[in-house]
Amino acid sequence: MLQAAAMRATDKLLCGLTEANPDAAARILEAFAAEEAGRAFNRLNVGSAAMVLGRMTPELALAAILQVKPERRTPLLEHMVPHVAVRLLRLVEPDTRTAWLEPLGEKLAAPLRALIAYPPDTAGGTMDPIVTTLPVDIKVGEAVSVLRKAPRSTVVYLYVVDRDQRLEGVVGIRDLLLASPKDPIAPLVNRDVTSIPAELDRDLLAETMQRSKLLALPVIDHERHLLGVVRHDQVIRAVQTEAFEDMLRIVGAGVDERALSRVSVVIKRRLPWLYVNLFTAFIAAAVVGLFEGVIAQVTALAVLLPIVAGQAGNSGAQTLAVVIRGLALKEISQSNLLRLMGKEILGGFLNGIAIAAVTSGAVYLWDGRWGLALVIGLSMIVNMVAAGLAGAIIPLILVRLGRDPAQSSSIFLTTVTDVVGFASFLGLALLLAPLIH
């Protein structure tokens, strides 16, 4: 009896939180075990449950929805925004996907199938497949009637199609309202309409949207059939999400990890790249091990090692961020690679001189040996140049290999700056040993 009362109190609290702050409810349920989250979704009303599922990490939302009662999954999918439902459907096996779509009926299932047919980072995977259209052969009065009945969210521009749903053009709402109800809409149609293919990459989609200055763009197939529409806010949200995911990939974290994700998710997403990082750290340690003799003779070298590697790492990270952004915006091409390399080498060299001057002065004041100040100054210049070059080359190599340039670039960059920094600093110390003693 007490357990039932506690469960009712928990349900009431969760329902209230869902209505007031669905994002907070999603974060709390993400911390639950899948079975517990599934039971909670069984007790929440369908609309609230669908809203919270849409705000959860897709993998955790799927784990929860697999635990809800089978007869409740269909209503949950019906209440979800198409893109939210598709994120979950992409994660299940094709047979399971078919079984989940079948009870929805063709009217609801068709838009979901249209989205699933295209990769999520394309216009077809980003579009809203539910769009209000006007047949090209109707009167103005009929068009106004269609407009009045259309859901507000489906109307940004009024696209006109032929009998086969091929895009004919766009008609202005103002033109419709000012025209006579008995006039045909065909003369009002602007046939010079900017459209995009469904296969268009998300980066090019954002570029096209920005260049067109439009609030929405129609998505078409090879035969100009209107498949859906991509709105300005969808593109912004998609680009923001991609930028956030790139930031996580750079450091080797999982793109689906949240602040309150379960420990198992943390281990699964981070551990593989931590092993890679450990391996590269051993490489850097091996380089230091080659110079044990000189370090034993001049212990100040061990104190200064982190300065050389750390400063170059920061410089390389700046270059890395600029180059990844340039690749995303298509600013970097085969024709300007040499210019990019030259800029980074010169920038690294000049920045290296400026940093070396300050570092050498500080080391001389601290230690009093001008030879040690010379060694750290020269190694700083060498490593800053290497860092700039590595920050530019690593993303380009990943692109050449068909990999995401943001994928753990910082781990490889850190390896380069550590190895070059340690080797140059300790190598110069060995060569100029008479000046240091």
Secondary structure: number of strands = 6
Shape field: elongated
Task: Specify the CATH homologous superfamily of the largest domain.
Answer: SLC41 divalent cation transporters, integral membrane domain
Nearest-angstrom radius of gyration? 29 Å
Helix content: 55-70%
**Structural class by secondary-structure content:** mainly alpha
How many domain regions?
Answer: 3
CATH class of the largest domain: Mainly Alpha
Largest sheet: 3 strands, mixed
Order of SSEs: HHHHHHHHHHEHEEHEHEEHHHHHHHH
SS summary, helix count: 21
- What is the CATH architecture annotation of the largest domain? Orthogonal Bundle
- End-to-end span in angstroms? 82 Å
Write the layout of secondary structure elements.
Layout: H1 2-20, H2 22-30, H3 34-43, H4 46-53, H5 58-65, H6 70-79, H7 82-89, H8 94-101, H9 106-116, H10 123-126, E1 133-135, H11 140-149, E2 158-161, E3 167-171, H12 173-178, E4 196-197, H13 202-212, E5 216-220, E6 226-231, H14 232-250, H15 263-289, H16 292-297, H17 300-328, H18 337-367, H19 370-400, H20 409-431, H21 433-436
